[in-house]
Amino acid sequence: MNRRFPWSLLLASLALNAMYAAVAGVLVPAQIAVASPGNKEIHLAVVMAASSLLTMVIHPWAGALSDRTQSRWGPRAPWILAGAIGSAAALLALGQAQSVLMIALGWLIVQPLLNVVEAPLDAVMADRVPEPHRPRVSAFYGGGAALGLAIGAGAAGMAVAQIGAAYTTLGIVLVVVMTGFVVMNPEHRTPAPRTTRAPRLAWADRDFRLVFAGRFLLVLGHQLVMGYLLYIVMDRTDRDAEEAGRLVTLLVGAHIAAVVAGAVIAGRRVRQHRVRWVLGATAVIATGLVCALVWPGLGGLVLYAVVAGAGRGLYLTADLALMLDVLPSSGDHGRDLGVLGLASIVPQTLAPAIAGLTLVLTGNAYGMLFVLAITGVALSTLCISRVSVQASSTP
Q1: Which helix (H) or strand (E) holds 154?
Q2: Are 19 and 161 in the same domain?
Q3: Which of 19, 193, 210 is nearest to 107 (CA)?
Q4: Which of 57, 219, 225, 334 is packed most tightly, with the most Cβ within 10 A?
Q5: Direct distance between the N- and C-terminal alpha carbons of the chain, in angstroms, rounded to an integer
Q6: Smallest Cα–Cα separation from 126: which of 336, 354, 386?
C-alpha cells in the first residue's frame, strides 16, 4: 500500500457519495416535483423503494463478479472504470428526462451502475490494506463519505435550476476521480493465492453474522431519526416547514462535521481491540439519542447532532475495520463486503415504513422514534459484544 492510497481512496469515496447525495437526495426529487407536482411524494417513494430493492441484488452481485475477474489490470479496476463510465453516460440521459417514467428508468439505471463502482471499491481496501493500517484507512474512507454526502447535497441544491449542467458535471467528476484512483493505485496482474468459500458457508460464520446484525440495527436506529428530522424539528420548535428546513441544514452540517472529527480521532487512536472501540462508539451514539429524548427543544437536537455525529465517525471507522477483520475468505472480499453493505442499505429502506407506522400508532409522538433508535443501538451493542475477533488478518 503506497502513501497515496488513503488520500486517493478519500477522494474516490467523496466523489461516489456526492453522486448519491446529489442525485437521489436533490436532483431526482426536484425533477419529479416538476414532472408531477401534485403527486410528487408518492412517485418519489415508489422510485426510491424500487431502487433500494434493486440495490440489494446488484451490490453483492457486482462485488462477487469482481472477485472472479482476471485481467491485465487486476480484478477491481475494470469494474470501477466501467461502472464510472456507464454511470456518467446514464447521468447525461437522466438529465434530459422530463416524465416521471423516464426519470424513474434513468435512476434505476444510474444507481446499479454506481453500485458497480462501489462494491469493487470497497473490496480494494480488503485486498490491499494490511491489518494494522485498517482503522486509519477506514477513517479516510468514512470521512470521504461524510464529506461527499454534505458536498453533494449542497452543490446540487445550488445547481437545481440547471439540471442538465449538474448531471454533466457529476458525470465528468466521477469519471475523472475514478480514473485517477485506478491509475494511482495499479493492481498486481498476478494476485496472491486466495481462499474461497461458498455463500452458504460464508454466512455460517458467526462473527460475520454478528457484525452484519450489529450494523443493521444501528443504521436502522439512525435512519428512524434522521429520516424524519425535519418533522422532528417542526414538532420540537413549533417552526413552520421553511424555518425548520433552515434549522435542519444547520443540524445536518454540525452532524457531518462531528462525523468527520470522530473519524479523524478514530483513525489516529484505533489500532487493536476493534470490538471495544465499536462498543464505545455505539455508547456515544446512544448518549446523543438520550440527550435528544430527555432534553426537549432545539438544545437537545443540537446535542444529538454533535454527540451522535462524533459517535458515528468513531463507529464508521472502527466498524469498517472490524468488517474487514471478519471477512470469511480472502477470495470473496467483494461478495462478502457487498453482503455486509446490505446492513446499511436495507435499514434505509425499512426505516421510513417503521417510523411512519410508529407515528400513526402513537398519534405523532416523535419521542418514540428516539426510543426505538435507542433500542436498536442497545441491541446492536449486544450483537457486537459477542464478536470474538479482535484484530486478525483475513485467512
Answers
A1: helix 134-158
A2: yes
A3: 19
A4: 334
A5: 19
A6: 336
Q: Which residue has the cell 423503494?
A: 49
Determine the angle formed by the axes of helices 163-184 and 100-128, rounding to 10 degrees. Answer: 20
- How far is the C-alpha of 64 from the C-alpha of 100, rounded, in Å? 33
- d(C-alpha 148, C-alpha 18), whole Å: 4
The segment with the largest mean pLDDT, out of 22-36, 101-115, 221-235, 247-261, is: 101-115
Q: Is residue 50 part of a domain?
A: yes
**Enclosing H/E stretch for 91:** helix 77-94
Residues 177 and 265 occupy one common structural domain: no
Long-range CB contacts (within 8 A, 24+) of 93-97? 94/23, 94/28, 94/167, 95/163, 95/164, 95/166, 95/167, 95/168, 96/164, 97/31
Residue 218 lies in a domain: yes
> Is 314 in the same domain as 356?
yes
187 φ, ψ (degrees, to nearest 5): -90, 155
Q: Which of 130, 149, 184 is the last residue of a domain?
A: 184
What's the whole-number mean pLDDT along residues 38-55?
80
Distance CA 278, CA 326 (A): 14
What pTM was computed for the model? 0.77
Burial (CB < 10 A; 0-12, 13-18, 19+), residue 36, is middle
Query: What is the domain count for the chain?
Result: 2
Amino acid letter for position 357: L
**Are residue 37 and residue 132 in the same domain, yes or no?**
yes
Establish how many alpha carbons lie within 13 A of residue 303's alpha carbon, considering only the half-sphere containing its beta carbon. Answer: 16
Q: Report the helix count and the strand count for the chain, using DSSP H and E.
A: 15, 0
Residues 157 and 272 both lie in one domain: no
- The three cell numbers of residue 219 are 443504521
Measuring CA to CA, which residue among 314, 205, 218 is closest to residue 266? 314
The predicted structure's pLDDT at residue 162 = 87
Report CA torsion sign: 36, 37, 39, 40.
positive
Domain contains 87: yes
Among 276-285, 334-343, 359-368, the range of highest mean pLDDT: 276-285
User: Do residues 225 and 373 lie in contact, with contact meaning Cβ atoms separated by under 8 Å?
Assistant: yes
Looking at 132, 150, 184, which one is the last position of a domain? 184
3-state helix, strand, coil in the chain (%, to 5): 80, 0, 20
Distance (Å, whole) CA 201 – CA 100: 43
